[in-house]
């Protein structure tokens, strides 16, 4: 994900946030950032299922994954633990954006501290008056030495405050877009600033980050097109609509 010209939080302000790294070579440390994730227990986090699938061929990735938590800057150690397995929503299809959610289980438990804490699952759906916090490390837009727009991986946490839109507006924003940007209003919502209205919007890099209000996880970042120049907000899986899957499987 990360965010162009967002603010710069510290992990103590969002201790539920983690990132998923892929180990591309057996003899090297995991470096390739794929997704954000939200910690919901000592050995479990939630993110998008598409994180574990090749985006072009829709095949499961075969390399090892690790989760890093408790860091404001990428160079910090924090906690780095290998992923044991993940459990996708049974309705998830790699060729669709619907039900794009998975539970990530770690081989060892996280040690909770002021920098590592779980978010909670909502008891009630998020209301339209709420503004969510979304953070990440992914691609950030900037300019190179020639003054040309470029994208680079953020070295520190970047965040945005993301206001909600009505479901009617959400569907309308993506009307006529390719099928990969299909909005299912029963299980998704739109949030975030529109490009042009604000200099805070998502770019690619670590989808799966949480839309969090006062420590409660209400959304999981699924997709967005603002970094492509389209004036639309980002789309989130609505946790309230899929929470039965999370609650029934998170303690396996």
TrEMBL record:
It comes from the Eukaryota. Residues 3-251 form the Peptidase S1 domain. Keywords: Disulfide bond, Hydrolase, Protease, Serine protease, Zymogen. One of its GO terms (biological process) is proteolysis. GO terms for molecular function: serine-type endopeptidase activity. The keyword Disulfide bond applies. Signal peptide: none annotated. PANTHER family: GH13245P2-RELATED, POLYSERASE-RELATED. This is Peptidase S1 domain-containing protein. It comes from Zophobas morio.
């Amino acid at each position: 994900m990360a965010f162009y010209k967002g603010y710069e939080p510290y992990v103590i302000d969002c201790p539920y946030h983690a990132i998923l790294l892929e180990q591309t070579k057996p003899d090297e440390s995991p470096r390739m950032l794929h997704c954000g994730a939200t910690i919901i227990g000592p050995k479990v986090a939630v993110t998008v299922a598409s994180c574990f699938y090749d985006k072009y061929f829709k095949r499961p990735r075969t390399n090892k994954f690790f989760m890093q938590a408790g860091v404001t800057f990428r160079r910090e150690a924090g906690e780095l633990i290998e992923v044991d397995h993940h459990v996708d929503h049974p309705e998830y299809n790699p060729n669709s954006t619907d039900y794009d959610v998975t539970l990530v289980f770690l081989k060892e438990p996280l040690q909770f501290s002021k920098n590592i804490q779980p978010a909670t699952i909502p008891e009630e759906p998020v209301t339209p008056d709420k503004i969510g916090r979304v953070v990440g490390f992914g691609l950030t837009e900037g300019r190179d030495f020639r003054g040309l727009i470029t994208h680079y991986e953020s070295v520190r946490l970047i965040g945005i405050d993301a206001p909600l839109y009505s479901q009617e507006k959400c569907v309308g924003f993506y009307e006529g877009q390719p099928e990969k940007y299909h909005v299912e209003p029963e299980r998704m919502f739109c949030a975030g600033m529109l490009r042009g209205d604000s200099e805070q919007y998502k770019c690619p890099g670590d989808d799966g980050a949480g839309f969090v209000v006062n420590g409660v996880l209400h959304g999981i970042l699924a997709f967005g097109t603002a970094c492509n120049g389209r004036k639309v907000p980002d789309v989130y899986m609505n946790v309230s609509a899929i929470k039965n899957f999370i609650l029934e499987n998170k303690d396996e």
